[in-house]
Amino acid sequence: MKKTSTRLADGRELIYYDVRDDVVRDAVDRRPLERTVTTSEIRRDPLLGDRVAIASHRQARTYHPPADECPLCPSEGERLSEIPDSSYDVVVFENRFPSLAGDSGRCEVVCFTSDHDTSFADLTEEQAGLVLDAWTDRTAELSHLDSVEQVFCFENRGAEIGVTLGHPHGQIYAYPFTTPRTALMLRSLAEHKEQTGGRNLFADVVDRERADGTRIVLEGEHWVAFVPYAAHWPYEVHLYPKRRVPDLLALHDAARTEFPQVYLELLKRFDRIFGEGEPPTPYIAAWHQAPFGTLEEFDGVTRDDFALHLELFTVRRTSGKLKFLAGSESGMSVFINDVPPEAAAERLREVASK
Fold first, then answer.
1. Mind listing the pLDDT tens digit for each residue in 208-217?
2. Catalytic residue among 57, 64, 167, 169
């Protein structure tokens, strides 16, 4: 992998990740952009104890542009985009309309490919491996920023999820705090450790799923994917490396090599869930990594107790119907799942590649 860092016209950082070492990236951003000004602010909810990002400048962000005006495609002639060069493998840049910025963290965009009319599932294993390398590198770089406590790499795919740009891409949020969802995991981890005399909750969950087998979707030499026992979403898969590590940085070479094979197969299966002729399945793919900040408030838990894993889920519950977060989910955070996890796992096994 070759990494080339440059600056856009308004001062934002842009980084090319290339498979080949001999690629030269010296294109200049020719757009007449003024320096980016953001109004991001983090406020704490005194009742729930969580935090909300107030980012009014995002109202002006690009919204469903036509394909020939996509800001994530390479620049071509006088059609200038966020990427100055005429081609790229993988590129990462600071979001022009970030939810988090400055002392409130950082937001980046990850473009998986220069091909506008494709998706992550269509990438080659080499391309998917390069995306993994980019996620890992950005996690390492962002973890060193004073304002960052947790790094979250994710992909929103599909208009039903709220995606406003059709080009295959994901994002990285670098939070200045430990997110509420991760904090819940850490509290459960600490409680389990105390109640079981030091056993690891993540390890026990994975071992239970592998022993039961009914919710296993896919298993390789170094990765295992399953529908969780208490899945929140109609079709939800958790993907774990078999050797527990706290973050992407700690993945060993064999797991890194196998990841593209396993993950691409999972994404292909997601697109087959609802049968032939159906539109692409909308999904969220979310990497969960251990925070880089102190974990003192989580009794006896260390970063090494955490387990890196990816959660992949769709909001589509059946053909033409979405799972909306209504009163119980939105008002009380109590999910109601219409698809039994065992049935979801069986369907995901049925649609395996031949």
1. 999 999 999 9
2. 169
